[in-house]
């Protein structure tokens, strides 16, 4: 039995462990992978649709480039048989892919999103999904990001980069929820 | 003589003067409209293409709703005859519009973007433009935003919201430039 309620993983590949991401400071949400796994287990138990968006970087020195060990999915949330894998080459999972067409064809109109990094591919994909008319839930504790400087050179810790990204998205492009809230919704069905 | 170099104004309508935007604190970049006008004068002097993206809000209480006084363009950068007006209903100027098709058909592949607000319609449009393969320059001092709380409730001044948005965009979706740098590029031709 299929459902309208799809779970989307964004770029959850080994490459996100590369040291380059930590150059300005540590990531936030150390429990994010555990929460992603909780979402995945919940969706699988319901036999609800799961989409794994995989970044196939075109940049020669990216750890996300196909052929690099970083290109592999993180094992804790790797795709199972029957789950859809969508390869992308830009930040948005909707550009240069058949994601939108596939979701519409299958009637998967309600998306719960998690993955990395909050303020880049996750945010771009959520902005587009909301503008395309999908109902989007973003699991705040099943995504994470890293510290970075702002345009004036001020160092922003990962918690701030993450929290400002969520604030920009909530109510405008999506509803921000916790993993627990996403699973509570799932248990209603 | 047409050029590949289009100037895009995002949502520069009277509605942005509405008091609701200031509820968490003042805007930044008080000189933004003056810089938008400098860009517009530069583009017009070259007879380069100018696009005015207009937000036609569907929300009943939005000052951007058609029929409200706020729906009108700000007079200092209002469209002239021959300039293209594109109406949109979401944040992204590319969704539900013919902007992408028009730009490609006319060969306008290099976009200089300005307008409001940095972290919402400007950012969403720049993220999509970059991912769609356009070359994008974002004029940092010809856009602005407002203070807002982050997801943890911490008040972020407009300068921080703006600067973190620019940092997220630069090098990934666009090149952030000053108005002066954009005009210096224009003078090369």
Short description, anyone?
Two copies of one chain form a homodimer. Chain A has five helices and eight strands.
Q: What's the total helix number of chain A? A: 5
Ranges of chain A with pLDDT <50 over ≥5 residues?
Answer: none
Which protein chains are joined by the largest interface, and how many residues does each one contribute?
Answer: A-B, 36 and 36 residues
- Please provide the count of β strands of chain A: 8
**Backbone shape of chain A:** globular
The SS-based structural class of chain A is alpha/beta
The helix content of chain A, as a percent range, equals 25-40%
Mean pLDDT of chain A: 97
Q: Which oligomeric state applies?
A: homodimer
The portion of residues forming beta strands of chain A comes to: 15-25%
Specify the biggest β-sheet of chain A.
6 strands, parallel
CATH class of chain A: Alpha Beta
CATH T-level fold name of chain A: Rossmann fold
By CATH, the architecture of chain A is named 3-Layer(aba) Sandwich
Order of neighbouring strands in the sheet with most strands of chain A: 3-2-1-4-5-8
* Distance separating the two termini of chain A: 12 Å
Q: Estimate nothing, just give the exact number of structural domains of chain A.
A: 1
């Amino acid at each position: 039995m299929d459902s309208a309620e799809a779970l989307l993983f964004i770029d959850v590949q080994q490459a996100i462990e590369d040291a380059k991401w930590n150059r300005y400071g540590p990531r936030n949400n150390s429990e994010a992978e555990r929460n992603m796994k909780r979402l995945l287990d919940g969706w699988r138990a319901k036999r609800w649709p799961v989409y794994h968006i995989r970044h196939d970087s075109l940049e020669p020195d990216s750890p996300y480039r196909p052929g690099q060990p970083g290109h592999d999915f993180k094992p804790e949330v790797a795709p199972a048989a029957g789950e859809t894998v969508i390869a992308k080459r830009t930040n948005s999972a909707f550009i240069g892919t058949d994601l939108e067409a596939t979701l519409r064809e299958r009637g998967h109109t309600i998306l719960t999103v998690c993955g990395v990094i909050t303020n880049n591919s996750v945010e771009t994909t959520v902005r587009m999904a909301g503008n395309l008319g999908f109902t989007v839930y973003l699991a705040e504790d099943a995504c994470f990001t890293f510290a970075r400087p702002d345009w004036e050179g001020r160092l922003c810790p990962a918690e701030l980069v993450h929290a400002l990204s969520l604030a920009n998205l909530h109510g405008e492009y999506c509803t921000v929820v916790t993993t627990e809230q996403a699973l509570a919704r799932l248990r209603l069905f």
